[in-house]
Specification:
By secondary structure, the protein is of the alpha/beta class. The protein has 2 domains: 15-82 and 356-461, Aspartate Aminotransferase, domain 1 (Alpha-Beta Complex); 87-353, Type I PLP-dependent aspartate aminotransferase-like (Major domain) (Aspartate Aminotransferase, domain 2, 3-Layer(aba) Sandwich), CATH 3.40.640. 37% of the residues lie in helices and 14% in strands. It has a 7-stranded mixed beta sheet, with helices on both faces. The longest helix has 22 residues, at 356-377. It binds pyridoxal-5'-phosphate. Pyridoxal-5'-phosphate binds next to helix 5.
Length: 463
């Protein structure tokens, strides 16, 4: 059962700093009607979020209609890398609206051509063509289709897809199958016999935790042998779907592990797709997360910060792979919508213009430096800090049992909200941090002070 944030307003100390304002009880009493209407008319599966009713979001700040203002450490959910309501994006959208072109289906329009050209130009050379969609989950499903189509050009049984237990690839049926979480995919009622899952190579599963000499390449081989023992024929693997880091905790793979995976894929003529939907476009201090592993994947799944705003996702790859589906045989009604493409183009330009990838790397040093100090300070609570660039995962445990403590994580998020900071609530034993890459250094530092206060207050409450 997920932690449910209370909708009963709590009187909290007022806050009035350069970057934050808290003037009312939280949640703000005047916003309760909206929260109650959502509860009444919308599936509860959409709920569970911190009870802040967004009225306006600009750059790295979120405002409600009652005069409260939060520093945003979420970018909604790793979308607003170029800042909320980035002026380059909003002005591009105004231009499209004023021209009166809101939809074209797969009929051509100029902005789509401009956006695709830009996307392919800024990505490494092996990515020659794209397929545009709306949601991230469509992109991962599309990549599975391409991987299998490619496999079948080699042999008709080459259909096997290998992904990682606990990875996030979306909420549609194929994407949930990729996740390999028996609980979350129980509703499907059957298993795709050609989908296999590797255990995620968590650092704590090394012989000695974080042992620098641990042979992660061997671990990959051993895990593959385990799958073989369960009936997998290596020649029938079509490809791998790799979430570029494990989403819930921002946990990266050991580099040697991923290199071994890519070498294996070459040996057995299968494709490697990286799901960069969450980590792409500068979040980790590089354009894409896979670049930290020094490998060359065949396909990338993109979404979220691809447009920084409107629904837009993509799969990119070589011409040979991207042209496998027959002429005119793949479509999605809203894909390549003129507004989404305009937002995407302006967003890619804004990332370049603001030098935001380098900024993510620079500010990431501030973020991780401060988080490692917090880890020392709350050493009985914080077991790991993961992530790179302006991305972090804080893993929390119960000081007595040493077990993961999701409740504590939720309470820290709630306390931070009451103090004017929005954190990514994962519902697990992790808190994630992903501010817009445009955040000012002072706001980043202030947000980290608030995080410290929120942890201290939660520790106090649980005594
Ligand atoms: C790594 C990853 N892949 C895929 C998805 C699914 O994207 P969407 O929610 O746009 O379908 C997500 C969403 O959180 C994600 O983090």
């Amino acid at each position: 059962m997920k932690y449910q944030f209370s909708h009963i307003p709590v009187n909290v100390l007022p806050v009035n700093t350069k970057y934050r304002k808290i003037r009312t009880a939280i949640p703000a009493p005047e916003t309760l009607k909206i929260l109650l209407d959502l509860e009444k008319y919308e599936s509860q599966s959409m709920h569970g979020q911190l009870p802040v009713v967004w009225d306006r979001a600009e750059d790295f700040q979120i405002y409600d209609s009652c005069g409260n203002c939060w520093i945003d450490f979420t970018s909604t959910i790793f979308v607003a890398n170029a800042g909320h309501a980035n002026s380059q994006i909003t002005s591009a959208l105004h231009t499209v609206i004023d021209r009166k072109l809101l939809h074209t289906y797969t009929f051509a329009h100029e902005t789509r051509a401009l956006f695709l050209k830009k996307l392919i130009e800024i990505t490494p050379d092996q990515f020659e063509k794209a397929f545009l969609l709306s949601a991230g989950t469509e992109a991962t499903e599309c990549a599975v289709k391409l991987i299998r189509m490619h496999g079948q050009t080699i042999n008709s049984s080459k259909l096997g897809i290998i992904s990682f237990q606990g990875a996030m690839h979306g909420r549609t049926m194929g994407a949930e199958m990729l996740k390999g979480d028996p609980h979350q995919s129980a509703w499907i009622g059957y298993r795709d016999p050609n989908m296999y899952h590797l255990p995620f190579p968590y650092p704590w599963t090394a012989k000695d935790s974080f042992d620098k000499k641990y042979d992660w390449a061997k671990r990959f081989q051993e895990d593959m042998e385990d799958l073989k023992a369960k009936g997998l024929n290596f020649d029938n693997i079509a490809g791998f779907m790799v979430e570029s880091y494990l989403g819930w905790g921002a946990i990266f793979y050991p580099v040697a592990y991923i290199k071994a995976l890519v070498d294996f894929a070459k040996e057995y003529d299968c494709l490697v797709a990286f799901d960069e939907i969450q980590g792409g476009f500068g979040r980790s201090g590089k354009l894409f997360v896979y670049q930290h592993y020094d490998v060359e994947p065949d396909l990338l799944c993109l979404g979220k910060a691809l447009s920084g705003s409107l629904p837009l996702s993509a799969v990119i790859g070589s011409q040979k792979i991207m042209d496998l589906p027959e002429f005119g045989s793949m479509s999605s009604t809203h894909s390549a919508n003129p507004l989404c493409c305009a937002a995407g183009l302006a967003n890619l330009e804004a990332i370049e213009f603001g030098n935001l990838i380098a900024e993510s790397s620079r500010k990431g040093k501030i973020l991780h430096g401060r988080l490692n100090i917090l880890k020392e300070k709350y050493s009985d609570r914080i077991s790991y800090i993961f992530g790179k660039g302006l991305l972090a995962g804080i893993i929390l445990n119960d000081p007595k049992s040493g077990e993961p403590d999701g409740l504590f994580a939720s309470r820290v998020c709630e306390k931070a909200m009451q103090k004017g900071l929005l954190l990514v609530h994962t519902g697990r034993e992790s808190i994630k941090i992903g501010p817009p890459l445009t955040i000012w250094d002072g706001a980043l530092e202030e947000g980290l002070d608030v995080l410290d206060e929120a942890i201290a207050a939660t520790v106090q409450d649980t005594k």
